Amino acid sequence: MNQPSRPFAGIALAFTILLGSTSSPVQAQDKSLTVFAAASMKNALDDINAAYTAKTGVKVTASYAASSVLAKQIENGAPADLFVSADTDWMDYAISKKNISEPTRVNLLGNSIVLIAPKDSKLDNVKIEQGFDLAGLAGDNKIATGDVKSVPVGKYAKAALEKLGSWTAAGPKFAMAESVRAALTLVSRGEAPLGIVYATDAKVDPGVKIIGTFPAVSHPAIIYPVAATTTAKIEAADYLAFLKTTASKTILEKYGFTYLVSPTT
Fold this sequence. Notes:
This protein has helices at 6-19, 42-56, 67-75, 88-96, 134-138, 152-163, 167-170, 180-188, 199-204, 236-243, 246-254, and strands spanning 32-38, 59-65, 82-84, 106-110, 113-118, 143-146, 174-177, 194-198, 208-213, 223-228, 258-259. By secondary structure, the protein is an alpha/beta fold. It has 2 domains: 31-110 and 223-259, Periplasmic binding protein-like II (D-Maltodextrin-Binding Protein, domain 2, 3-Layer(aba) Sandwich); 113-218, Periplasmic binding protein-like II (D-Maltodextrin-Binding Protein, domain 2, 3-Layer(aba) Sandwich).
């Protein structure tokens, strides 16, 4: 990119000092980043991306889907600069395929899984414990979650139900969705009377309510790692640094995520 002409150099420096970033809006007007992120990150990451663009002038485009889908797209050459996965398995997969810059990886966030129902459901305050009869609760109806073979929320849900001794009976009643947000939509629209999603998803959809929370000990820890891809633009490092700031922490915690790193100012 051509350097700014001398009359604008002072303005660029002022922006850099004011915003505390190595990339100023004047310098970054033609720069952009592409983030591939787990579907459950949408609302929070949209806010973070807007804040980052306002701070630096770097445009951020986000593509949201199940982590499994995104990892495969990156493997097949999709032009992503950063990857945010809803579990460690798919980040490990992307690293094994040499698509991720492993030194940039950070386990950024935590979450929990919950049982939801449409907001007008008569079901409420379900105690989820050993021997939990999810199949009986569903009756002849379906239970929505992500595909238990590939989508992280579905994998967590199956693990929890197996641990609680509830999977054998409940498994046949599951409607497998392509992502956690697709499962959330099924319940919000009343197409499924029950669903298992992340607590953060339930928080952003007024069409559902949480009727129970799965014990953290019933499933593997829910961890969201983030990393730059091996083909990432140089600006990706600055974006990763922004994710570790107090400003990002505030946004992420507002949406219900657990922040797993010590934030910078």
